[in-house]
Amino acid sequence: MADASPIKENRDGKSSSSIMPDDKIVIKTKHGELSLEQLAEAQHGMAHLMKEVGERYHVLYYAAKALNWKLAQYQLNQVIALFRIGATLRPKFTEDLNGFVKTHFHPMSEAIRLEDWRRFEEAFKKGIQGSDQFHEKYGYGFIHFVLPKNPPEMYELNPEK
To answer: What is the distance between the alpha carbons of residues 124 and 60, in angstroms, rounded to a whole number?
Structure first.
């Protein structure tokens, strides 16, 4: 049975109960109007996200090495959050990003939970190898993460006493 309620019209005279396929959804901001297509195109791609992943992976390693497990887990959580964003913005990577989290980040998280440096370091290195494999798979085989030789200077790495 069809809905008998009246169709309400917006200020522009268009029905508020449905959007016709030919209509474009427009978002009004204080800076003007943008279509959903424009918003989608304005989103950062994987390269932008991976730059931050690399920076956090650097901090993650040296935090764990300093036995600052809280900072290490925080950095790992942030990397996983970036992977979620990547999976949302670039659905073609979703399966591989989720698999990477399970295969590489879960073992790292477990090592952090156990406060086991050796186990962590092994999982971390496997993560770098996995990263190289995915770069190769997607045509970016020229990208290889190299752990900086020095710890980051912008964080106090020693855990609180």
So the answer is: 9
The whole-model pTM stands at 0.77
Max avg pLDDT among 71-75, 85-89, 91-95: 71-75
Both 14 and 77 in a single domain?
Answer: no
pLDDT tens-digit profile of 55-81?
Answer: 999 999 999 999 999 999 999 999 999
User: Burial letters for 130-146: b for 16+ Cβ neighbours within 10 Å, e otherwise?
Assistant: bbeebbeeeeeeeeeee
Q: Which residues does residue 32 pair with via DSSP β-bridges, in sequence order?
A: 29
Q: Are residues 89 and 105 in the same domain?
A: yes
**Which CATH number covers residue 85?**
1.20.120
